Amino acid sequence: TKTYKIALLPGDYIGEEITSGAVKIMERVGKAYNVDLQFTRGAIGGAGLDEAGHPFPEATKNICKESDAIFLGAVGGPKWDNVASNLRPERGLLEIRKELGVFANLRPVKIHSSLRDKSPLKESIIGDNLDILIVRELIGGIYFGEKGREGDKAYDVMSYSAEEVERIAEIAFEAASKRDKRVTSVDKANVLESSKLWRETVEKVAKKYPEVELSHLYVDNAAMQLVINPRQFDVILTSNMFGDILSDEASVISGSIGMLPSASIGKGVGLFEPIHGSAPDIAGQDKVNPMATILSGAMMLRHSFNMEEAAKIIEKSVELVLEKGYRTGDIYSGTEKLVGTKEVVEKIMEE
Amino acid sequence: TKTYKIALLPGDYIGEEITSGAVKIMERVGKAYNVDLQFTRGAIGGAGLDEAGHPFPEATKNICKESDAIFLGAVGGPKWDNVASNLRPERGLLEIRKELGVFANLRPVKIHSSLRDKSPLKESIIGDNLDILIVRELIGGIYFGEKGREGDKAYDVMSYSAEEVERIAEIAFEAASKRDKRVTSVDKANVLESSKLWRETVEKVAKKYPEVELSHLYVDNAAMQLVINPRQFDVILTSNMFGDILSDEASVISGSIGMLPSASIGKGVGLFEPIHGSAPDIAGQDKVNPMATILSGAMMLRHSFNMEEAAKIIEKSVELVLEKGYRTGDIYSGTEKLVGTKEVVEKIMEE
Ligand SMILES: CC(C)[C@H](C(=O)O)[C@@H](O)C(=O)O
Ligand SMILES: CC(C)[C@H](C(=O)O)[C@@H](O)C(=O)O
């Protein structure tokens, strides 16, 4: 029997509901493969603030240090709207990313065939095989640059080193070489110096992957192309800020943001969380779609514990439950079986 | 008879085709109102480079200085892909904006009722009354901040002063007070210091407009909302960089980027140009849709010369030509009358 330690950080509002089902499913699958998954709970975001006065408390940091992977729910919400900006729940997220050194945020955007009608885009545009992987740089750029005030001015510095660009580009090219072998790098090299460095460096890295086709798009054009022709993309490689914007845009194009997982990886342990937020409006009502979190669990098994088969079993079970027509409200069209969070988890367990 | 001087800067590729028709239409309408519109041609972008070795030549600058308004086509294209970055055609655009001090870029995004089916969004989402005005700050932020290299690093500084935010916010609130009285300010105040200043300042300005409702969105959320519920917006107020991304995203949502005009205004003369680019692929083939440029002309008559009625006549004529079913390829669905650039101009003249 193998043992893996996982830091379980549910976070705020729906955080508890979405992670608890995912944990059950992972434990069950783990057992089948003789893997003992040991979850240790920690507070983050608003919960960290309430419990320990900080959105990423020392105690949680220590739990993370002793873990093989981090499994996170969602953070933030109106309860902490008025706290000082350096203590906001979101700071917890930024700090844990930085602390773990997870420089690559992987966001697969897929349309499940049974959910095709949920996309806001016309069928002629969305087609039936949208499958994009967004690779977003996560611990550099303007998010972590120097910032401050000077008189009546405020500033933020966007900065990248060649090394930072290189390592994220490598992740993108590696991923592409196992997919459709195309990388679209997104920048604003016609205006920004950091984007020029980005482009130069990505081009250098591309030379190591002659089988992968590289193209470049300006970020404004990329925001357009995602809407008018999302199927043109295989892997999108971009910086922290542009990735934040484009990955959210791409996720709603799929029509079911409640289905989308993410993995943040670096040199050490990885961080796995759904893309969606903490949904204060439906928290505690057994309404939220747990699938994004469950699929994030599958990504964790795959990336952190090399449990490819177990990951596939979870993904396949989610697919089957969708095909059988069980739906939470966010993906319900009026004709399928409307169920709650818990029942979705049970149905996936059954599969 | 009144006389106005206009700098006519066709720019590159389709620039000549789109501006020449618009000029004819404006001259005709001007005559009807006893206004003499005097156009003086100048080179900008790639044309400036070819003619005078600079994307915004001194000669053009001088023409602008003696003009009451600037009318621009489009710049850029593959011909100048390999010039030094400080001489790229786009630099001409950035420099003319800065030189003129046009800090407010106004981009109305509308769906013409006869073009509703062109939107990539489902009809249930796009509805029939999309009417957004994007107000983008145009001469500050990361576009014009300090930038450079330091060892293997590259950086760009995003900076705003309270005064810069104030003046653009005022434009947005003024516009909203004449429209549906709602401003959505877009920033990333949960991460950026300059966004925090942006938000504080916008809130101050809002106090002067109690009849206008202000809300805030993070830029990632705004990129999502534009796709899932674009009809929620009246006026969107945002910074240079975010405005670049969001206004392009919004423009394709309308389904007909070839229809969208823009006005850039400041303390002095204004700059009027279509939103779309220089379309090298269809240049010189009498194929391009001249309507965005013609509607930019209408905006010029309205904003710079206070010729409201003349502007309305042009806008109405464009509407009528659409209703009669004359379409260039970009807005042709297969059943209307497919016509070329010149014929569209003639049809509008007839109306
Ligand atoms: C909460 C916020 C700081 C965060 C980000 O911008 O990175 C979020 O939007 C995300 O994309 O994970
Ligand atoms: C050409 C480019 C520099 C420009 C910009 O980013 O401002 C363009 O995209 C625009 O939006 O007018």
TrEMBL record, chains A, B:
HAMAP family from the UniProt entry: LeuB_type1 (MF_01033)
Cofactor(s) needed for function: Mn(2+); Mg(2+)
Organism: Ilyobacter polytropus (strain ATCC 51220 / DSM 2926 / LMG 16218 / CuHBu1)
Keyword Coiled coil: no
SUPFAM superfamilies, sorted: Isocitrate/Isopropylmalate dehydrogenase-like (SSF53659)
GO biological process: L-leucine biosynthetic process
A Gene Ontology cellular-component term: cytosol
Subcellular location as annotated: Cytoplasm
Protein known as: 3-isopropylmalate dehydrogenase
Keyword set includes Nuclease: no
Subunit structure: Homodimer.
Similarity comment: Belongs to the isocitrate and isopropylmalate dehydrogenases family. LeuB type 1 subfamily.
Organism taxonomic ancestry: Bacteria, Fusobacteriati, Fusobacteriota, Fusobacteriia, Fusobacteriales
